[in-house]
Amino acid sequence: MEQTLSIIKPDAVAKNVVGKILSRFEEAGLRIAVTKKIQLSQADAEAFYAVHSERPFFGDLVEFMISGPVIVTVLEGEDAMAKNRDLMGATNPKEAAAGTIRADFAESIDANAVHGSDSVENATDEINFFFAQREIC
Ligand code: ATP
Ligand code: MG
After folding, report:
1. What is the rounded distance in angstroms from the CA atom of residue 54 to the CA atom of residue 56?
2. What is the mean pLDDT of each run of 10 residues along the chain (137 residues)?
3. How far apart are CA 65 and CA 88, in angstroms?
4. Among 115, 123, 127, 130, which one carries the catalytic annotation?
5. pLDDT value at position 101?
6. Cβ–ligand 1 contact at 110 (below 6 Å)
């Protein structure tokens, strides 16, 4: 079974739509292998988004990701990575297809409600960043 990492970002946690977003994963046939609420430190956010460190929006992205707690979840199922990306919708909520999480819950390209791993290889690294193997079951 494929696994992928989801983060419900501070904007969606603050809006109190955590349950609604987790339900979408379950309704699409994905299983929650583990989930937790965590306040990222600046070092956590910089390390997690290190791939974007040279991008002009990196500082704003880190600041946003530490602006409040997030919900980190390992989703499991057939084609979990691609399925989660489909449920999320486009990075910019203004371009996200109707019925996607970002179309329904996100305000802007900065505050865009959710993160999802963008490859199966990155998913493994991102899952290991947040969880010990024995927590995932
Ligand atoms: P995520 O990695 O959060 O799941 P994504 O894979 O859809 O989102 P990426 O290209 O990986 O998009 O960008 C990471 C995050 O950086 C985006 O979710 C968004 O919040 C922010 N971001 C990306 N592009 C821009 C931009 N042009 N301006 C501002 N913020 C941006
Ligand atoms: Mg990404």
Report:
1. 7
2. 98 98 98 98 98 97 98 98 98 98 97 98 98 98
3. 17
4. 115
5. 98
6. yes
Indicate the SS3 state at residue 14. Answer: helix
52 part of the active site? no
**Six token digits for residue 130:** 């947040």
User: What DSSP character marks residue 132?
Assistant: -
Edge-to-edge strand list for the sheet holding 70-77: 31-38, 70-77, 2-8, 114-116
Among 55, 78, 77, 72, which Cα is nearest to 116's?
A: 72
**Residue holding tokens 């900065």?**
110
8 Å CB contact between 49 and 95:
no
Q: Which of these, 27, 56, 52, 55, lies nearest to 115 by C-alpha position?
A: 52
Please tell me the predicted confidence (pLDDT) of residue 67.
98
SS (H, E, C) 27-55: HCCCEEEEEEEECCCHHHHHHHCHHHCCC
